[in-house]
């Protein structure tokens, strides 16, 4: 055997060479002569091709309906929608009356003072000062704007008439007058504590009264009209791919599964052709009965109701469910063609949050009701994502899908922060809804104080810019709203400033009876705010005073405000600015630091135990406005044996007890401001200590960073890419 191998060794080598060449050619595959193999198309390109399809019909419904002009007028199809709308409208009306109750609870002097700063109106005393009665309740609600949106609802008049009949005239046929409606509103106001949301029985009763009003409103000529028609047509359902975004498609190549997020089947078209089946002479519309002076508009109204009724039957026949099932099969074939790989499954994910977000941002303005629903749906969506991350089966797929959902949510939140909220003074953000809830009754109670304190999460600073982070997280939503703690801090400060401007009062107030002399002294006290007072005797010697501590308003600034109002770009700019701080002075040899007209003095024992830094940075570039105003009137914001931040011209050798009594920032704020300033200085010192080679490398990287994440390094051998 061995001899045979030696004898034919050349032949064996030739065979091995041929096999090697074949393997090499197959692996190299020049010009694709062995087939293209499996190649994944880019998701964005795939979505672009799908967008070009436009609408895809995947289910159709054909049917026949009969309707009349009487049915078209009453439109019973909308009864369920009307019952839902009237339930919401009744709750809105009760909320308006609750707001009026809260307004009346405010001290009269507060209400008068607020009025004097606004536009003047006739008979202002009966609206501002007087108690609520049946003669002024409508004026009060109109002045305060609580009925603006409610009174504009098409069902408002019907609701008020229904409530009037329920309260006063259940069996009468007469129409209520303005005075009747005022009495009804006042009756609701007085019995507000006993009012309950409409139950199903009351909603049905309202619909009956609503339809009765429609019939009674018809003229004699209209009531004599008779028109009955048969309508034959079709309803088509499917998908509108024009709504498909690149973030809406998640493709798992290894498993051949495509997930489509936020794209749901819908009715694309509903129509009744004049000739339903032309070849058999079957018309789309056929009149069964006609009487009276029926005109073109009557016929058009009945035909449209035929289409609406046909669409309702299509829904009842589950056309959307059939469209979804057929769409899965159709799109499997479509995506297989686009990717060049067999798609085994297409999964649709209905997402109420994404669907609502699309509707809410159409007018590029966020209302209170939209903000409320947006927040609720967002929290539900976050819970779904958390459950996907913690799943046991199909972990890789579910977690990948959760990551894609997170990206979509972040994109939506970024867009929504560009839209104005309510009157448009501020842009919509994480705190917008909470700010509205707190300010709704013009008061701050203990629960809201606790909420503001909990939302004020701490910040921690390491030795690098990338190490800035939250000390604790109050709400998991903050990570979706803000990609950096500085952005959260800025929005929180904005909310506090807005609440301060509203000059909200406290729910916990004190009352006292004081002599006139003590009352005069009380008025000038900075720590007390008098909300109401009245003299108890004709000589004005005794005064009944309602007051609360004004220190609470100050604490919104001094205790909760973040001491930093800065973006990361400014922090990086400080890193590269010329002469950020001068030569340090030793605090051991200087009892009083000279006053600085620009910049500030900073000392932190853990950073440098013997020297303070004269920083050439304008405090306006990083201090929030309220603290900046305080800094203009005081030599320092904090001063302790371990550190200080100030303008100079103050004695360094002060006892700890004396310093504690003059503290402007609390312990947490001092810790945050000190951590921030120490970080700035450490970053700058590290920058100054870099060699020319390191600085050149950083400069090149900042301008040549590759899109895929590779970076260019400058070495002794020249440029290298890693």
Describe the structure using short key phrases:
722 residues, disordered C terminus, 48% helix, alpha+beta, four-stranded antiparallel beta sheet
The gyration radius over C-alpha positions equals: 37 Å
Helix percentage range: 40-55%
**Stretches where pLDDT falls below 50 for ≥5 residues?**
31-42, 703-722
- What does the largest sheet look like? 5 strands, antiparallel
Molecular shape: flat
Protein name: DUF4230 domain-containing protein
Organism: Echinicola arenosa
Transmembrane segments: 12-29
Keywords: Membrane, Transmembrane, Transmembrane helix
Can you describe this structure?
The chain has 722 residues and is α+β, with helices and mostly antiparallel strands. It is built from 29 helices and 25 strands. It has a 5-stranded antiparallel β-sheet. Strands 1, 2, 5 and 8 form a 4-stranded antiparallel β-sheet that branches. It is flat, with a radius of gyration of 37 Å. 22% of the residues are buried. The model is unreliable at 31-42 and 703-722 (pLDDT under 50).
């Amino acid at each position: 055997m061995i001899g045979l191998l030696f004898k034919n060794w050349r032949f064996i080598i030739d065979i091995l060479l041929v096999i090697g060449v074949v393997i090499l050619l197959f692996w190299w595959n020049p010009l694709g002569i062995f087939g293209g193999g499996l190649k994944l198309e880019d998701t964005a390109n795939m979505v672009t091709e799908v967008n070009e399809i436009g609408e895809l019909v995947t289910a159709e419904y054909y049917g026949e309906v009969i309707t009349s002009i009487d049915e078209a007028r009453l439109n019973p199809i909308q009864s369920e929608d009307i019952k839902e709308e009237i339930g919401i409208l009744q709750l809105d009306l009760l909320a308006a009356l609750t707001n009026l109750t809260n307004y009346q609870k405010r001290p009269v002097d507060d209400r008068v003072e607020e009025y004097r700063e606004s536009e003047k109106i006739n008979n202002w005393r009966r609206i501002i000062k007087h108690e609520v009665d049946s003669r002024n309740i409508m004026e009060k609600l109109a002045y305060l704007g609580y009925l603006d949106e409610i009174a504009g609802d098409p069902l408002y008049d019907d609701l008020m008439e229904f409530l009037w009949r329920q309260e006063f005239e259940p069996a009468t046929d007469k129409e209520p007058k303005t005075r009747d409606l005022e009495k009804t509103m006042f009756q609701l106001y007085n019995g507000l504590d006993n009012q309950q949301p409409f139950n199903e029985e009351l909603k049905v009763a309202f619909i009956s009264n609503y339809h009765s009003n429609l019939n009674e409103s018809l003229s004699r000529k209209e009531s004599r009209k008779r028109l009955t028609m048969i309508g034959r047509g079709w309803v088509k359902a499917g998908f509108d791919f024009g709504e498909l975004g690149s973030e809406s498609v998640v493709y798992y190549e290894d498993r051949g599964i495509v997930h489509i997020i936020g794209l749901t089947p819908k009715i694309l078209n509903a129509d009744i052709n004049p000739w339903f089946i032309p070849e058999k002479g079957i018309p789309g519309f056929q009149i069964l009965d006609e009487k009276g002076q029926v005109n073109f508009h009557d016929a058009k109204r009945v035909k449209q109701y035929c289409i609406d009724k046909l669409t309702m039957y299509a829904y009842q026949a589950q056309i959307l469910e059939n469209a979804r099932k057929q769409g899965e099969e159709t799109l499997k074939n479509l995506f297989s063609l686009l990717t060049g790989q067999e798609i085994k499954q297409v999964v649709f994910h209905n997402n109420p949050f994404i669907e609502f977000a699309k509707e809410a941002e159409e007018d590029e303005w966020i209302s209170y009701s939209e903000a409320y629903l947006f927040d609720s749906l967002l929290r539900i969506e976050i819970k779904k994502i958390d459950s996907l991350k913690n799943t046991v089966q199909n972990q890789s797929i579910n977690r990948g899908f959760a990551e894609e959902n997170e990206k979509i949510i972040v994109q939506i939140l970024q867009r929504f922060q560009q839209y104005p909220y309510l009157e448009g003074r501020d842009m919509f953000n994480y705190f917008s809804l909470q700010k509205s809830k707190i300010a709704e009754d013009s008061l701050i109670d203990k629960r809201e104080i606790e909420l503001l304190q909990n939302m004020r999460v701490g910040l921690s600073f390491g030795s690098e810019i990338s190490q800035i982070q939250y000390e604790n997280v109050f709400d998991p939503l903050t990570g979706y709203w803000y990609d950096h703690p500085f952005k959260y801090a800025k929005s929180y400060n904005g909310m506090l400033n807005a609440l301060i401007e509203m000059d909200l009062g406290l729910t916990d107030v004190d009352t006292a009876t004081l002599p006139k002399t003590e009352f005069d002294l009380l008025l000038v006290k900075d720590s007390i705010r008098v909300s109401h007072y009245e003299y108890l005797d004709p000589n004005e010697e005794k005064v009944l005073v309602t007051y609360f501590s004004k220190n609470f308003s100050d604490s919104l600034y001094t205790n909760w405000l973040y001491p930093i109002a800065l973006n990361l770009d400014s922090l990086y700019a400080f890193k590269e600015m010329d002469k950020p701080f001068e030569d340090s002075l030793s605090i051991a040899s200087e009892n009083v630091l000279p006053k600085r007209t620009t910049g500030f003095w900073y000392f932190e024992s853990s950073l440098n135990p013997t020297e303070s830094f004269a920083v050439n940075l304008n405090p306006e570039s990083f201090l929030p406005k309220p603290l900046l105003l305080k800094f203009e009137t005081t030599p320092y914001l904090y001063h302790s044996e371990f550190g200080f931040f100030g303008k100079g011209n103050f004695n360094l050798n002060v006892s700890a007890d004396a310093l504690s009594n003059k503290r402007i920032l609390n312990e947490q704020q001092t810790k945050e401001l000190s951590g921030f300033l120490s970080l700035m200085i450490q970053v700058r010192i590290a920058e100054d200590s870099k060699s020319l080679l390191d600085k050149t490398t950083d400069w090149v990287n900042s301008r040549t960073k590759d899109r895929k994440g590779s970076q260019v390094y400058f070495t002794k051998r020249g440029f290298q890419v890693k």
